[in-house]
Design a protein that fits this description.
Strand content: 35-45%
Order of helices and strands: EEEEEEHEE
Strand order of the largest sheet: 2-8-7-4-5
Radius of gyration: 19 Å
Number of strands: 8
Largest sheet: 5 strands, mixed
Length: about 160
């Protein structure tokens, strides 16, 4: 009989843990579910505080607007949080593409889902833009979204 190998370097990778969203902020406020939240067309950022105990996972943040199983649209915001050797990390995403002109011209309440994946989502698959490779896990936050016209600059005509 041989004793078990107790060295850290040769142990099984363990259980894959899902990522979690600790908080979501804009340039000036923390967003609380379900909102509503207002974004100006063409500017701003979204800061997402994340945690994942799988320290080597890159976390992929995707923001979907009006995504439904019968209306699978591509994400409007894409960014990622690289592995940094720590469970907690932060990523800042540009929201320039979040509110296109047609959403501002026809103001209505949209739905916005912020999803975090521990594997890069596949382009194809079901659900489209959210299908993960084997072993991938995800989490999300949901908000009602209103898109507004950008503020006018002083002196602009």
């Amino acid at each position: 009989m041989f004793p078990p190998d107790l060295s850290v370097g040769n142990q099984d990778a363990g259980i894959n843990s899902p990522p979690a969203i600790l908080s979501v902020r804009t340039d000036d406020q923390e967003l609380t579910e379900p909102g509503p939240v207002i974004f100006d067309q063409g500017n701003g950022t979204l800061n997402v505080e994340l945690i994942d105990t799988d320290l080597t996972d890159v976390l992929f943040v995707r923001v979907f607007v009006d995504y439904a199983l019968d209306h699978q649209t591509a994400p409007r915001v894409l960014c990622s949080a690289p592995a940094n050797g720590k469970a907690q990390r932060s990523v800042t995403c540009s929201t320039n593409a979040l509110c296109p002109p047609e959403d501002v011209a026809d103001p209505k309440d949209n739905t916005m889902q912020i999803m975090v994946f521990d594997r890069e989502p596949l382009e194809a698959g079901n659900p489209q833009f959210q299908q993960l490779p084997e072993g991938g896990l995800a989490t999300s936050r949901f908000f009602f979204l209103t898109c507004a016209a950008p503020p006018t600059k002083p002196g602009a005509r």
